[in-house]
Amino acid sequence: MESFGKLIKSENPTCTGVVDSLLAELDIRKRLLLSGQPDDNHQIGILIAEVRLWRMLLIYVAYLSDADMKFGVGRELGSMDRDLDAALKEATNDFRVASKKEGVGKISSDFGADPEKYESMVHKGLTRGDYGVAMSKLQQKLMLFRPQMKAAYERIASNHSFQSHHPLSRSGVCSLFCQNLQQVVRVLYCGKCKMLEYMHLKVETMSKMLKRLQTFISTMVRFSLDLDRDFLTHFGALLVRTAHFCCLCWIDQMEEDKTEELSIMLHDLLKAFKLDTTEVVQLFLKLFRPYSLVKTWTSIPTPVETFVDFLFPEKDPQLETFFKGLEHLIMFVLEVGEPEKSDLKLLIMDITAAISRLGYFGDLFNEIGESTGYIFSTNVSAFFRLLEKIELLRVEVFLDELLKKRISLELLENRIDSFHEGLFYLESYQRYASKWKSKAPKLVWLHIKPVAGKAVSVYKSFHAKSVTEDKFKHELTMLHCKIQLLKTEILLEELLDGNPDLIINGRLRLEELLDGHPNLTVNVKNQMESLDLGLIVLRTYLMGPLEDDEKLILTDAESVARVASLFYYSLLKNDIAEHAVGNFSHVLPKLVRKMDLVNAKIKEIYMPVRRSSKSHFPKTEGFGFIDCLLGDLSELLNSEAGFLVSLRHQVHAVHRDLEFLRSFLSDIKEQYNDRPDLKSFVSSIIQVSLEAEYLIETFVVGNCLRWYHPLWLSDLLEDLNLFKVQATEICTNEHTISIHDVPTSSMNMVSPAKIPMIDEVVIDLTDEKKLIIDRLTAGLPQLDVVSIVGMPGLGKTTLALKAYNDPSVTYQFHARAWCYVSHTYRRRELLLQILGEIVELKDDILEMSDEDLEMKLYQCLKGKRYLIVMDDIWSTEAWYDFQRSFPNDNNGSRILITSRHFDVAVKLKADSTPHPLRLLSDDESWTLLQKKLFYTKKCPNELVIVGKKIAESCRGLPLAVVAISGLLERTDMIPDWWKQVSESICSHIVDDPMTGCMDILELSYRYLPNHLKPCFLYTGVFLEDKNIPVRKLTWLWIAEGFIPNNGLDSKEDVAEGYLRDLIGRSLVTASKRRSLGGVKTCHVHDMLRTLCLQKCEEENFLQWKNGYDELFPSSHMDLDYGVDPNYFCPPISQKYEKRRVSICSKRNHFVMSRPSGPHVQSLLYFATSDLYPRCPYDITFIFDNFKLLKVLDLESINMGSSFPTEVQLLVRLRFLALCGDIDTIPASISNLRVLESLLVKGLKGKVLLPYTLWSMEKLRHVHVNNYAAIALQDSESTSSSQALNLVSLSCPYLLCGKGTEDIMRKLLKLQKLSCVFSELRDDSGKCNHFPVLNFLTELESLNVLYSGRIALPCKFEFPLNLKKLTLSKFRLPWDSISEIGRLPNLEVLKLLSRAFEGKVWEMKGGEFLKLKFLKLDSLNVAQWNASSDHLPQLQHLILRSCRQLKEVPSGFAESCTLEMIEVQLCTHTVEESVKSLQDEQLGMGYELKVLIDHSDMDF
């Protein structure tokens, strides 16, 4: 058979045989026909392929040993060698002759050297003649040899035993064979064989596989690496089988019944070529092992890199880090070799399994090319688990290297960086999973970074000799144990998911393993699920870090972890077969039981932590809190927050369950307050919701994360599921929750909330008030002290306020001031409070010492007739502290005090008799109760008896009567309900009226609807005896989550409705009103505040801290300015545990106490030392000590000249109020994505707002004092067409221009705007007109201050919906006011500080048709010509500092709508004209109220 070797090219590439010569001639012909006739091209391609099939066969035969030739393929070939040799030589000669005749000449040698000649040859159409004859002859001859070729290929394809070695076990021969085979398959793929149409894609895949293999073998040969004979034998056999398949395709291509047979053959071949078995991977590793000691390969790429390319040819660039890590793992396997230690053997086995699994995906990528979307859509979870597994193996190898001290300190950082890069890609996986709607696996990779970081720390400590070698080894061994647990989790997840591609033991899938034991299948899967859950608990515990008391069961936990690791490796071993199922079914239950025991102990450690944490949660929290939580969860789920990568499934489940329960709460809200069982159930729901919120917020801010937090969240989900079941049962039995056994409760309101008038009569105080007024305005000229005394709730403050605001009193005194003293007064604060009502508090006053303030007050009062009210004095010391500041000029000045202590009032002035307020009689109490409930109507007869009993139970205290009336007024007026209230009161009645009053107040609180309780309790955060700004209060309510979103009204409107309800129930009192009647400020009676703070403590709602005097020496008591806050620090900082904290203290004490609160979500600070925050303090500790804040109010403390950028760490802030000498707000403020209210007090004046502010979608209220400049640095941010949710804005500095207009056009929801408008002159010197605002269709309130020189007449383009307008300093002529007068909805107009100038204001008809409130302040108008027809709806007129005005228009006497005129600092003629109007109105039957205030009248 030696002649067969002559037919082919020998291993020396320079020699040419008969077959190569023929292929060269055919190749020339094919290349000439590339642009010619496709049919002829296809035919010659088939000829070439068939000749190559012969060539491969002859190559194979040539390298057979004589023995193998004799007993093998030689039988089929017989003596055909001479005939085949003659036929091929004749064909070669025919083609050469045809070439000469056609003029091709020497084109075979210089083909392509002359492109023009080549083109001419093509266009000659060299497809006929001698070439055609030669091709036909060759086809006929080859057809004669096909039976022998088919038989030969069948023989060699089925022969797996050789006397010596496989013919293709030489690198060069195998590469040559593979190269020819690849070209044959290529022709098959590109050909027109009908039989292969159904296998087209598979043939293409085969072509790619052969190309990969041929490239790999060639590269290895180029590296001068001797390929292992086993490797070549394995792949050589596959190449021969593939050649056999191609042979059959040629010979049987016309036989359609062969299609199925060929398809099965091709499928088996593709499966055999895949690199997804550990056996094949071992062949590659064995190939490289002799060269593993070569640390540095000079070639690029290295052999290992070439193998990785062969393993996974279609690479995603993002996976580069993983492939580098894979190369490192392969090098580790090569270096270890054949380890003796069992743990290393297991690790090598694990790495080999991971490589083979990656080979599966590499083949999958190879099959579909670059369609990675398909990969992710169908295999995303499995592929991700594999990448995750590779990273875990990298960490395990890393730990082994550290343990053997094979890594230098210099290389540590590079290795850690490589882990970070891998984790970055794994983190982005979540986006792919979401995109392809794939189930996201448990992301155990999140624990890789902590393990690697801990390992590096231990390694460095060991090198620094700060830990012993035993400790070093122990720590790394424990980390290794944790990695084993993580790998076990991945495997269990694959098993539980039923991954069809997961092969156990290399042969059996899980289903196959258990197929013969159906009785075990269910139990095994259940046990594996238990094992999986147990692994989570065990792993989270071992991941630590652990406190000392948490290490009690560490040894048991580590033991179970080791057993779980062995169980994991038992599933990967190759020797587990069918007989092992029984053993498997015994080992698994034992492991589960052992793990359950340890996990029970682990939960015993964490459960006390959970129980103790409940002490931080309030017992009272409205349903609106759940609405806020649901909104936060929705935003988190739509975000790409890092922590969500591992918790998205649980967070989604919490959101889903809470949505269900919130809907349930809405369904039962009518029954909630009257069913104790429902109330308890709802309370449990809210408590678990608070826990869920705390945990998720902890994850968001990354604060105090502990190992048990994921377990806690899992347990909370179990609680929520249980609540869902209970709620479903309640809804199913809906009839059982209707109320039959109790009267209608306070939830069944029958009338809308009504706000009482601020000066509403509590009881008929006419006589009492007259006595007090007489003592204030009459009597001796010496300075006198008038005292009103009585127990709390009698109406002392109400009586004093009535006298203080009486027109005769305001007319009598030149200066008036009111201050609240209380039992914890501060002298400096009261001095400034009094001065603030007499003069403007400028910096020079605010920086005075206390002694200088006393002198300043004395000087301001000297020579004036003044009235000072000191409300709620508890001791004589308060009087003595201020007595020196009150001059006695014998001009009728008075001091009016209120006190609950008669002996204190007597001691203040021995010759002044206190005025005691008595208790009401029963009849007076009943009269007051009727007036509060029915106003001018008569009480229904059926309620009289029980009503009188209720009135008697109030023991004569007006506050008790008012409180109980607030309770009764909000419900149905039915006897049964009133009897229940009466019985409740009588059961608490005691002889002491004050105690009885507190019981009645508590009853009022008890019957408050659930949604109002937290709103009432929240008033406790504010200072005692201070007016509470209503807008700030409602914004805080919203930020706290008290206000639900009802889908109809804005949250601000709902909040104001809640306040009206509280005022209607007499639990809150309106202090000051707005122009249109709304409440501007409110306050809480001191007894109600006592009740409020008591309930805050009982219900864990609020922690109130009043001063730090016990922490600091007395030498610090009066220091606040220029003091180093670090001068003295207590040994332990103040730690707060409740959800809300309100602190009232000196500023330096607050800073020095360094408060903190890991559970605190609301922190409000109020200073007591000054009204003006002069000294700057470093408050950055706040942002580290309170990570979970939603509300932060530091408006009372100066934070310095720079806005703290650390505030962006408080990512959950909804309400932020700050103060300081700042001039700019940083762009990073936009990181507070859920911020709703921003209040900044700029003590220097202008504060620059960043352009990023306009990207904050949640922001609704921005208020900056004194004014804010708007940054326009970012054109993109201002050009966006998206409308913001901003509702109120003050006080921006507006210039007329496109930039300002662009920003304002983004504020289309704006309702309230207070701004400063400055002139901006153009090149011609003309002043630009007022900014266009008519597009702000929802704007209702506008306040504009003009800053500049005299404004030229300009056109105002105000929105038509405007209801309230305030203008200051415009100095416009009066004829320009008509444009304002034509606003159709204007109800309030305030013209201040020379807003208009001119001696005469001539009003015109048809203007101000809806105006109800008009204020003229500091105008130079002298003559005002108007009648009642010009202001047909006017109700309230205020004139202040109009010192040139001669009189109020007399035509107002005919107005039937005018109710009040206030005059201050105007001429006597104005006062006389107002009094005349009052008399005329009285004569017409109208009661016009006139207030004339002479305060500061020094002109």
UniProtKB/TrEMBL annotation:
Subcellular location: Cytoplasm
GO biological process: defense response to virus; plant-type hypersensitive response
GO cellular component: cytoplasm
One Pfam short name: NB-ARC
One Gene Ontology molecular-function label: ATP binding
Superkingdom of the source species: Eukaryota
Domain NB-ARC: 769-937
CDD domains associated with the record: RX-CC_like
All residue ranges annotated as the Disease resistance N-terminal domain in the record: 626-701
Domain named Disease resistance protein winged helix: residues: 1021-1091
Keywords: ATP-binding, Cytoplasm, Hypersensitive response, Leucine-rich repeat, Nucleotide-binding, Plant defense, Repeat
UniProt-listed InterPro entries: Apaf_helical, Disease_R_plants, LRR_dom_sf, NB-ARC, P-loop_NTPase, RX-like_CC, Rx_N, WH-like_DNA-bd_sf
Main location: cytoplasm
Family: Belongs to the disease resistance NB-LRR family.
UniProt function note: Confers resistance to late blight (Phytophthora infestans) races carrying the avirulence gene Avr1. Resistance proteins guard the plant against pathogens that contain an appropriate avirulence protein via an indirect interaction with this avirulence protein. That triggers a defense system including the hypersensitive response, which restricts the pathogen growth.
UniProt-recorded name of the protein: Late blight resistance protein homolog R1A-10
Organism this protein belongs to: Coffea arabica
